[in-house]
């Protein structure tokens, strides 16, 4: 399931990173300002005017951009200024092109084993090194993700946002398809 994968990536990030999103009201419109995260990844901090429990020192992904059918390595380091305990949750929004694909809330502690961590997490410095395989069946297109993690007391742990575009299936695949079709016709 491609969307399971996307959320797993998000959990990797939310569990090991600190984000900030800037939000302010202007003429009745909420604006979100993002800040870059040190390291190379398609993600940014969001809600950056708001205090956050996680400070993400660095976030690296390889390859950038992520590729279908390849392993994606995620290396993150960050510091938690408060513990994360049972009851923590994460709100995830994923847009696929113009379509709202996912709008859901997940139990953060239930997802942490995906990244070899478990609740409670004490405050302190953490490093994460995780490899996830991106299935080659992920549909091509543009995916936009916003994930906000909160403690059980609704304090913002981190806000992460990012965009990944998986290109249309490559020429090599079309060529091999054409070749098999012409083989069938002879
Ligand atoms: C991804 O990593 C797994 C486990 O290390 C390995 O078995 C698999 O062959 C790798 N996939 C690719 C496409 O490199």
UniProtKB/TrEMBL annotation:
Kindly name one Pfam family recorded for this protein: E1_DerP2_DerF2
Q: Which GO terms describe its biological process?
A: intracellular sterol transport
Which stretches make up the MD-2-related lipid-recognition domain? 43-164
Q: Name one GO molecular function term.
A: phosphatidylcholine binding
Which superkingdom?
Eukaryota
Matching entries from SUPFAM superfamilies are given as: E set domains (SSF81296)
Q: Name one GO cellular component term.
A: fungal-type vacuole lumen
**Keywords assigned by UniProt, alphabetized:** Lipid transport, Signal, Transport
According to the record, the signal peptide region is 1-18
Q: How does it assemble?
A: Monomer.
Family indicated by similarity: Belongs to the NPC2 family.
Q: What does this protein do?
A: Catalyzes the intermembrane transfer of phosphatidylglycerol and phosphatidylinositol.
Name of the protein: Phosphatidylglycerol/phosphatidylinositol transfer protein
**Which organism encodes this protein?**
Dekkera bruxellensis (Brettanomyces custersii)
């Amino acid at each position: 399931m491609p969307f399971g994968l996307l959320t797993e990536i998000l959990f990797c990030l939310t569990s090991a990173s600190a984000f900030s999103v800037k939000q302010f009201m202007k003429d009745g419109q909420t604006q979100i300002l993002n800040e870059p995260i040190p390291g190379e990844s398609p993600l940014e901090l969001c809600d950056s005017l708001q205090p956050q429990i996680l400070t993400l020192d660095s976030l690296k992904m390889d390859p950038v951009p992520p590729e279908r059918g390849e392993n994606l390595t995620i290396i993150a380091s960050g510091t938690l200024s408060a513990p994360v305990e049972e009851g923590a949750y994460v709100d995830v929004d994923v847009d696929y092109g113009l379509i709202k694909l996912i709008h859901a809330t997940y139990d953060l502690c239930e997802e942490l084993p995906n990244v070899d961590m478990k609740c409670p997490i004490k405050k302190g410095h953490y490093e994460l090194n995780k490899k996830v395989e991106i299935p080659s069946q992920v549909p091509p297109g543009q995916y936009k993700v916003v994930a906000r993690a909160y403690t059980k007391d609704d304090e913002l742990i981190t806000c992460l946002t990012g965009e990944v575009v998986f290109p249309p299936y490559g020429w090599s695949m079309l060529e091999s398809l054409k070749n098999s079709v012409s083989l069938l016709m002879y």
